C-alpha cells in the first residue's frame, strides 16, 4: 500500500530502525499464504496450513538466519529478525506462534544455550525447516516456577549418556507447541544430575520422533486438543520413560559434563546459572510483545475505520448523519487506546534496539543483560494486557458485525488471549520488574553506604536508580524546563507530565523498599510481609514501565522533523500521558501530587485531546500500514450501500 | 449435588423466590444433553445438536408455557420461566440463546404484540417446538436505532394483504438467530404503511420456509457463517422482495388495520406506540443478564476451585506450599469479582420478581413498566460487562490450562462476548437508564413547580426522584443510623456506604440536568451539548445501577436469618460496596466526599476483606450449586497427582 503525506511520515517514525524490513514483509510475502483462514478450518487442516506457512518462511526469508550470529551461520541482524517477526503479528497468529516456536524458542535454545558443536549440527536444519523442533519447558505441575521442574536428566557414566525421565504426571511437559504433531527434536529442560549431585535446570536435546514421524520408544506424546485460539499450533504433552541420549545432547554453554564424567560450569551459583540460561531466551518475550502490539493495531485499524463510516442515530435536527466516531463515548473508548498503542510500539522499537545492541555486544555486561530482561518483561506484560483489553473494546465498538469471524476480531481475540500468561505470566513478570527495581535500589543504597554517604536519604538513592532510558538528555531538559509539578500548568506540559510519572515511580519504589526491609528473615512472617506488599509491588512495576514507555514516546517525537506529523505525534503523546495519569489519578491526589480540582479537570482534558485527534484518527491508523490482505473484512463493504 | 451447612444456606438465599425451579433444572434435565460440546464440532453438527436440545426443552419442560398468560395457554408463572432460563446459562450457551430466540423473542413477540387470534394460531406450536421461528428486527444498516428501520410493510387494500419489502442492502435483516437454517416463521419488524401513510415500526409474521425447509419465494436467506462463539446458533440474513402475507399476520395489539383497510391504534403518538411495543420485549434483556450472570458464576467456580488447589511457588522457607489463592494479587483479581457476582445475582433476582409483578398485573401502569425497562437495561449492561471482564480474568487465573477448550473458558468467553452488544448495546442501554433518570427528575421538578414549590432546590428534587428499590425502609434505617458520610467510620458502616452510593448518584444527576438544561433547541449546538455530556451521562447511569444493586444486596442480607451464612453474606456485601467505591474513589475525593487519606485507606480495607473471605471462597462458589456436568473439566483432575 502507498501512503501519502502525514500518514507516510508517521509511518516512518513508527517503523523505526528496521523500517525496511517492515516494508519487505509488506510487499514481498504473499499475504494470502499468511492470512488468517476466512472460515474455521478443521483442526488438522489448520495445523497443516500453518506448518506449510512456516516452511515457506524458512525457505524464502532470512527470518531465522538474521537472528543468529556469524559463528552460528547467521547474519547477526537480530533487530531485523525480531522486527520481521513482529510484522507477522498482523497475519494469522498461528503462523506467528508456530514460527516463534521453531525459530525463536527451539532455535533460540540451541543458539543461546548450545556450543559450536550444536550450532553446526542443528541450526541449518532449524533455519531451513528440515529439522522441526519444540521447546519443552513448562510442566503440568510447574509453569512459572521453572526452577522447580521435576523432569530429570541423569548422567550415566557407564554408557556416557543422559537419561531423561518424567517421574510423575506433574513432571509431564505440557502445552508444548509442536509436540503434538510436527516436532522431531525437543529442547527439554530438566534437572541435571551428575554423580548423584543436582546441578539445577539444564536443557537437553531429545529426539521425540523419527524422520517418518513415528514417536520414539520411551516417549509418550499427548495432544492438548482444541484450544481457545491458535488452532493451527499443535500443542501437546511429552512424558519420558528413561529415555537415553548421548552426553553431547546437553546444551553445554553454561554447564557441561567433561569426558571424565565431571560437571563444570563457568557460573558457580546454581541459581545464577539458571537465571543466566533463562536470560538468553529473552527474545521470546520481546517477540510476544511485538505480536500482541501488531494484533492490537490491526484491531484498532478495523474499529476506527468502521467508526469513521458507520452511522448510528441521526442528530436531533435530523439532517446530519452522526458517525460513530463523532460520539464522545466512542472516542473515549478508542482514542486513548490508540495513543497507548503508539506509545507501546515506540517503546517496543526502543526495546528491540536495546536487544540488538546486547546481542551484537555493542552493550555488554551483566547490568545490560539484566536491564534488558526487566524491560522485556515489563513491556511484554503491559503490551499483552493492552492487547486483550483493546481488541475486546474494538470488537464491541463494531457491534454484531464485530462478532462475525469474517471480520477478524474472533481470531484476534482468541489467538492473542494466551499472550498474557505464556512466555511468563504477566503478574509474575511484573514481579520480576519490581525485583529488578529493588535490586538496583539496594545496590545504590549499598554503594552510597560504602562511600560513607549514609546520610543520604531515600530520595537521593532513587535519583540514582531511576536511569533514564532513551534520550535521557531530552527528558532531563523537559523536566527542568517544566513549570513544576505543583503548578496548574504541570499537566499541560510534557516536562510536568514526565515529572509526575517519574515521581510516582520513585515514591512507590521508596515506600516499597521501606516496607520490605522489615522482611529480613526466611520464615513465614517474611512471606506474609511480601505477600501483603504484593499489590504495592505490582503498582511500582507498572509505574516504572509506564514511565519507560512515555520516555520512548518523547524521544521519538523529539527525533521527528518539525511539521504536521510531529505535531500530530505530539498530541498523541499528550493523550497517552494524560489518559495514563487520569487512570491512576486517585493515586496522585492521595499522595498530594495533584489537587482534587486538577484531578477533576484531567478528565475534561483527556476528552478534549480526543476531540482534537478525532479528525486525524484515520490518518493515525493508516500510518500502521497494515497490508490490505491482513485486514480484509466485510466491515466496510456492507456499509458501502448503507450510508 | 448436595450442599451442607453454610453453603446450603447461602444457596437458598441466592436461589431466591424461584429456588425450586432452579433445583428442578439441576436435577431433572439430563445435563449431558445440554452440556457444551467437549470438542469443537463442525458448525452444522453443533447447530443440529443445539436444535435437538431446544426441541427436548420444548417437549419435556414448562419453560415456554410458564412465560405465557392463561389466555395465551400458559401458566402465568413468568418468574419461573425466566429463572429456569437463567439456569441454562450454565450449560451450552448456544442452547441458551437458541431457546431464547424461540421461546423468548419469537414467542415473546407473538405474546406481547399479538392478539388472541395469533396466540391461538401460533403459540402452541411455538411452545412445543413444532413451529420454529425467528425474530427479525436488526438490519445491516440499523441496530441500535430501531426506529429508523428500512424494511417496509405496505398494506394493499385490493388483496387485503401486507407487502414486505427490503428496499436496499441496508434494509437486510442481519444476525437473525434461526434465520440461516431452522426458522419457518419470522417476526419481521417493518415500517407500516397504510394508504400512503407511515405509522412507524410494527411486527408482521412472515413465513420464510415451507414445512420441508424450502425457502419461500421472494425471500432471500443468507448465512452469517462462522462467529466468534455461539456456533450452535444459525444466525442469518433475510431480504424480502415484495413478499405478500395476509393482513391478519400483523401483530396488532398496539396498531391494527380494520376490515375497511384503515389504521387504528390505542396509542396516538407513533413514538410512544413504538416504545410501548419495544417495552413488551423487556424479558429478552432480563434473560441475557441472567445468562451472563450464570456463565460468570461458572467461570468463578472453576477459577476459584483451581486457585484453591494449584500451587505456584514455595514459600521462601521451602516447606509450606502456597496455593494460588493465598496470594494477595490473586485474591484481588478474583474475590471482588466474586462479591460483584453475588451483588448482581441478588439484583437480578429482584429484577425478575419485579418483572413477574408487572407481568401478572400486580404492579400496573406506565411508571411501573418504565421503571422495569430502565432497571432491566441497567442490570443487563452491568452484568454483561462484568461477565466479559470476569471470565477473562478467570481464564488468565488458570494460565495455560485456562486456554484449553476442555476447561470451558474458551466457550464461556466466546459465547458471552456478544452479550455486551446484543439485545441492546450496553452504551445505548446506559443512555436509556440516564434518560429515565432525567425524565423522573424533570417530572419531579415540574410537579414541585406546579405545587408552587419553585423555591425547592435541586437537592429536594433528587430526593424525590431517588426512589429506593427494595426494602426501602431498611435502607433508610441504615442510612439514618450511619455515622454520617464525613466521619472516618462512614466507609466501615453499611449506612455510610449506602449514603455514599446515593450521594454520588444524586450529584451526578443534578449536575447532568443542569448541564443539559442549556441544550434546549433542536439544532446542532444542542447535539454538541448532549455529546459533550455523554461521558457524564454514562457515569450517572452507572452510579444509579450500582446503587440499585447494593440495595438489593442489603435487602437480601437483611432477609437472611442470623447465623454464619448471614455473616458471610454481610462480609461479601462489604467487599462489593468497598471495592465499588474504591474503583471510583477519585470521584469521591474530587467531589469532597472522601478525604485523600480515606481514599488511600480504602485499598487496604478492600485487601483486608479479601483476606477475610479467602478461607470461605470455596464455600461461596459451592453455593452457586452448578451441576457437575456443566463444570466438568480437567482443571482439577490434573492437579490430583500434582499437589
Provide the descriptors you would attach to this structure in a database record.
fatty acid metabolism (chains A, B), Butyryl-CoA Dehydrogenase, subunit A, domain 2, three-stranded antiparallel sheet, six-stranded mixed sheet, 643 residues, homodimer, Butyryl-Coa Dehydrogenase, subunit A, domain 1, EC 1.3.3.6 (chains A, B), alpha+beta, 25 helices
Per DSSP E runs of 2 or more residues, the count of β-strands of chain A stands at 13
State the CATH superfamily name of the largest domain in chain A: Butyryl-CoA Dehydrogenase, subunit A, domain 3
Q: What name does CATH use for the topology of the largest domain in chain A?
A: Butyryl-CoA Dehydrogenase, subunit A, domain 3
Structural class of chain A: alpha+beta
Query: Could you tell me the strand content of chain A as a percent range?
Result: 5-15%
Terminal Cα span of chain A: 25 Å
Oligomeric status? homodimer
Largest interface: A-B, 86 and 86 residues
DSSP summary: helix tally of chain A: 25
Mean pLDDT of chain A: 91
**CATH class membership of the largest domain in chain A:** Mainly Alpha
